[in-house]
Amino acid sequence: MKAGLGYRLVRGLVRVLLRVGWRLRVDGLEHLPEPPYILAPNHSSEIDPLVLGASVPVRIVYLVSRHLERFPIIFRLVRAFDPVFVQRGLADVAGVRATLARLARGDVLAIYPEGHVVQDAPLGPLHDGLAFIALRAAVPIVPVAITGASQMWPLGARWPRPSRLTVWIGPPLIARVGDDAQTLTTRLRVALVGLLDAEPRRARSM
User: What is the pTM of this model?
Assistant: First the structure.
């Protein structure tokens, strides 16, 4: 999906801010396939969506929890970015259908396979839902490792802190014959761990 002018302006402003203030670096853009596909980042901070959106040259559709309806101002702002609203913790058939519909029309979705922010480990357990969607839609999964975000904005922090942000994009994962959701999730975990493990070595070579 082509990003509109408003989205591009916001993305550009955030990118400049992150580059100047937190030295944002993006590696692996050449791995991005033609849409549709699913971006699968680790989730170490609530700032991750902004970092991811500023890092890739396409408009991203996010999955957003319906609980934001309790916060009318934030809910209206989020709706302006045309997300897919889902019910967390439920068998959300409507949310799955909406997600598949977005992929069918050529959108790029971001789905966090950990399901929530994890800051006490490099990578938390991955859920099979992302892989299930990818298999149903027959789209690639692009693993993404975001580093430095948990230092920039730890859980509970009111203001950002000094850090260096890096986004590592890996080659897309395409389902093989015989892959089920669990198998594809295992492959995704291996890819994310590989990106996260290689990050310190590559960062030193910059």
Answer: 0.90
